[in-house]
TrEMBL record:
Gene3D superfamilies: GntR ligand-binding domain-like, Winged helix-like DNA-binding domain superfamily/Winged helix DNA-binding domain. Keywords: DNA-binding, Transcription, Transcription regulation. Residues 1-68 form the HTH gntR-type domain. InterPro entries: GntR_C, TF_FadR/GntR_C, Tscrpt_reg_HTH_GntR, WH-like_DNA-bd_sf, WH_DNA-bd_sf. Signal peptide: none annotated. Pfam families: FCD (PF07729), GntR (PF00392). The keyword rRNA-binding does not apply. PANTHER family: HTH-TYPE TRANSCRIPTIONAL REGULATOR MCBR, TRANSCRIPTIONAL REGULATOR, GNTR FAMILY. This is GntR family transcriptional regulator.
Length: 214
């Protein structure tokens, strides 16, 4: 892995799991110091993340994690639903019993992360759960698009799940696993859409409405 790739992966992971809150001001020098790197790979990492709409490059070389608005949030959620249902449909013919068991173990680990309030692990495991399913399709080209949406939602969604006890929801991953075990594609698509739209997404929408975001 090159220094540029290392800087990109470190910074991208920080954004993806929500370690940087929406509106956080960043500097090239500060990021270089935090990652113990020279400014050159940081500039390349920021350029790549800016192209993914994960970091805003403002005037005077200022950097910022984008704020979340209700309109942007709704657009990202709609795109998640469309892309992830497509990915699940394309992956479905490649499903095996072994994969279902691997997904079940990931879901068990997510349950443990919720109990211990390990929000970083919870986010990473959730992404891994969906990625494992979607990447069953050997010809898939959609994961970079899905990951870009996860990246843009990450900082805001982390703020939402910090009060995880207040999020009332059915465990939609259990519904996904049941649909996979039954080899029921319509039920799988329904469960994935519910998984995306319920829980932290619903709470996030309520938070933005209460703030009067547009």
């Amino acid at each position: 892995m090159t220094t540029q790739d290392y800087a990109y992966q470190r910074l991208r992971n920080a954004v993806m799991v929500g370690a940087l809150a929406p509106g956080t001001a960043l500097t090239f020098r500060g990021l270089a110091q935090q990652l113990d790197l020279s400014p050159t790979p940081i500039r390349e990492a920021v350029r790549r993340l800016s192209s993914e709409n994960a970091i805003e490059v403002l005037e005077n070389r200022r950097l910022r994690i984008p704020q979340m608005s209700l309109g942007r949030f709704e657009e990202l959620v709609r795109m998640r639903v469309s892309l992830e249902i497509h990915a699940a449909q394309r992956a479905f013919p490649h499903l095996t019993a072994m994969v279902i068991e691997d997904l079940r173990r990931l879901d068990d680990s997510m349950d443990s992360a919720i109990e211990t309030r390990d929000l970083d692990a919870l986010t990473r495991l959730n992404h891994r759960f969906h990625e494992m399913l979607y990447c069953l399709n050997p010809h898939q080209v959609v994961m970079p698009l899905i990951e870009s949406i996860w990246l843009q939602l990450g900082p805001f969604q982390r703020r939402v799940i910090e009060d995880i006890d207040s999020i009332k929801t059915v465990d939609r991953h259990k519904e996904i696993l049941a649909a996979l075990s039954a080899r029921d594609l319509p039920a799988l698509c329904t469960a994935i859409e519910r998984d995306i739209r319920d829980g932290s997404i619903r709470s996030g929408r309520q938070m933005l409405v209460q703030r009067g975001e547009s």
